[in-house]
Amino acid sequence: MAYETILVETHGKVGLIRLNRPQALNALNRQIITELNAALDAFEADTGIGCIILTGSEKAFAAGADIKEMQDFTYPQTYLDDFIASWERLSRTRKPVIAAVAGFALGGGCELAMMCDFILAADTAKFGQPEIKLGVMPGAGGTQRLTRFVGKSKAMEMCLTGRFMDAAEAERAGLVSRVIPAADLVDEALKVAAVIADMSRPVAMMTKESVNRSYETTLTEGIRFERRVFHSMFALADQKEGMSAFVEKRKPNFGG
Ligand code: HXC
């Protein structure tokens, strides 16, 4: 598929997707979401890929859903089309996905970043849910995921006022895993992704599934799920390889 609004690259075992509508600060319209979903499908199907990075430009990861596209939407249309449902493809990705965020991650852009497994932020990153200033509220998980990331007080303040959070605050609040100088963001994301992509593929995917399960269930059920998945790992050749490599003092070579 030829893409017009994203750039797609492969770096070894890492798939990189760059949102690329610079004229609109990567505002998320139908086309960009359709193309993002197609690129995710392709990387998921590619057995050579072990980790995916989603990034934007230096100025914007994404400045939100496309306001110019949305302004004339009607309630029946959004309901009948189930507007936003197509965005959920990202959160259903089974391989690990890292968001590398520089510049604005606002509204749907912040929500897209939060659908990834973790966020690496450039020191220029700005996160916000400013939908309320447009007479709407977050609609792609912002009220739910932001609250789980940063707690009720900060999430409520951000959603009710539209205030932006800078990278340092986002790191303190637990929204991002690390802050990186902007010039190094993509290189650092590629390094982290390469580390993940070199791990056992099924173990990385099951680990992701297990961490995500903690959002969906009680502690007792989550622990039980984790234990079952953990037990199943002893059926993997990668478990034998990983533990033998440790004992033999060599680097493991996971086959997946
Ligand atoms: C459409 C957008 C856009 C958006 C920016 N642009 N954000 N177009 N939708 N979300 C366009 C501008 O219209 C402008 O195009 C160009 O990108 C550059 O933007 P400027 O505003 O000139 O840049 P700047 O002055 O640097 O300000 C940057 C900004 C501002 C602070 C990020 O653009 C801004 O506030 N954008 C909107 C942020 C927002 O409200 N996001 C939430 C959207 S609602 P032209 O053609 O005029 O030059 C949302 C709902 C989610 O996301 C719910 C479900 C998904």
TrEMBL record:
GO terms of biological process kind: fatty acid beta-oxidation
Catalytic EC class: lyase
The keyword Lyase belongs to this UniProt entry's keyword annotation: yes
Keywords: Fatty acid metabolism, Lipid metabolism, Lyase
Gene3D superfamilies, A to Z: 2-enoyl-CoA Hydratase, Chain A, domain 1, Lyase 2-enoyl-coa Hydratase, Chain A, domain 2
Catalysis performed (reactions): a 4-saturated-(3S)-3-hydroxyacyl-CoA = a (3E)-enoyl-CoA + H2O; a (3S)-3-hydroxyacyl-CoA = a (2E)-enoyl-CoA + H2O
InterPro entries: ClpP/crotonase-like_dom_sf, Enoyl-CoA_hyd/isom_CS, Enoyl-CoA_hydra/iso, Enoyl-CoA_hydra_C
EC numbers for this chain: 4.2.1.17
UniProt cross-references to Pfam families, sorted A to Z: ECH_1
UniProt xrefs under CDD domains: crotonase-like
One Gene Ontology molecular-function label: enoyl-CoA hydratase activity
Superkingdom of source: Bacteria
Function: Could possibly oxidize fatty acids using specific components.
Cited NCBIfam families: PRK05862.1
Sequence similarity: Belongs to the enoyl-CoA hydratase/isomerase family.
UniProt protein name: enoyl-CoA hydratase
Organism (species): Azorhizobium caulinodans (strain ATCC 43989 / DSM 5975 / JCM 20966 / LMG 6465 / NBRC 14845 / NCIMB 13405 / ORS 571)
Lineage, broadest ranks: Bacteria, Pseudomonadati, Pseudomonadota, Alphaproteobacteria, Hyphomicrobiales
